[in-house]
Design a protein that fits this description.
CATH class: Alpha Beta
CATH topology: Rossmann fold
Helix content: 40-55%
Largest sheet: 7 strands, parallel
Shape: globular
Strand content: 5-15%
Radius of gyration: 17 Å
Order of helices and strands: EHEHEHEHEHEHHHE
Distance between the termini: 37 Å
């Protein structure tokens, strides 16, 4: 098999949570371009229907499942639907996360309710998605957790989010060892500043304002794109990455951490 062919995903079935927009959409479309059938899971049916059509336009199969990853009963049901339609799961991308109300909370002031919400959204959902996918996954599969470079830097206003992401690095490393006998790899991708709808709403700025604010502080001179993250995900998901597990990679343009 040539090196190029090692980056193909033909015949694989991938699941991407938070796949309706932003980084999740970019990863879903990138996998489709490399030959995978792709399932997108998110809350808004219209968003995932649109992405599913884009996936099918690339000549592969898709499935759009409306589900809330914080409804703990929804993920097993959704993944069973994937098995019913495609017969297998080869790649699981736990991408859904962030901040539901698009607000920041300093640690001295955050309520226990918001603490739990942030921890559940950014850590527990990814654990649950990983566990439930592994139970249904073919040996030799791949689990990818999308976190943030906030995991290993001070993050005023995002303290619980940052801690949850750091926790996912530790959990990913342990899960990688525990699933190694089945040849299932488990890795993290930590994006830097990618101008998504969530970032713009949280900071109350436009895309142009975000670029003006951040481009100058990133060593490579620009903010990231969903496609940048998709390229890293492809490495972990493809045969080219079969000997990489328990790792995290910053996709951040050289931004210091």
């Amino acid at each position: 098999m040539s090196l190029y062919e090692n980056f193909r995903l033909d015949g694989k079935v991938a699941v991407v949570t938070g796949g309706g927009k932003g980084i999740g959409r970019g990863i879903a479309l990138g996998f489709a371009e490399c030959g995978a059938d792709v399932v997108v899971i998110a809350r808004r049916q219209a968003d995932i229907d649109s992405v599913a059509k884009e996936i099918e336009d690339r000549g592969v199969r898709s499935l759009a499942i409306s589900a809330d990853v914080m409804d703990w009963d929804s993920m097993p049901v959704a993944l069973d639907r994937v098995i019913d339609k495609f017969g297998s799961i080869d790649i699981m991308v736990n991408n859904a996360g962030g901040n539901l109300d698009r607000k920041t909370y300093a640690l001295p002031e955050i309520s226990l309710e918001k603490f739990d919400e942030q921890l559940h959204l950014n850590m527990k959902t990814k654990f649950w998605g990983s566990q439930q996918a592994a139970l249904r996954m073919n040996d030799g599969g791949s689990i990818i957790n999308i976190i943030s470079i906030a995991a290993h830097r001070p993050s005023p206003g995002f303290g619980v989010y940052s801690a949850a992401n750091m926790g996912m690095i530790s959990m990913t490393r342990t899960l990688a060892i525990e699933l190694a006998p089945r040849k299932i790899t488990v890795n993290c991708i930590a994006p830097g500043i990618v101008v998504t709808e969530m970032l713009k709403e949280t900071m109350n700025i436009s895309e142009d304002q975000a670029k003006q604010m951040f481009d100058q502080v990133i060593p490579l001179g620009r903010t990231g794109t969903p496609e940048d993250c998709a390229a890293a995900a492809l490495l972990f998901a493809s045969p080219a990455g079969r000997w990489i597990t328990g790792q995290f990679i910053d996709v951040a343009g050289g931004q210091p951490t």
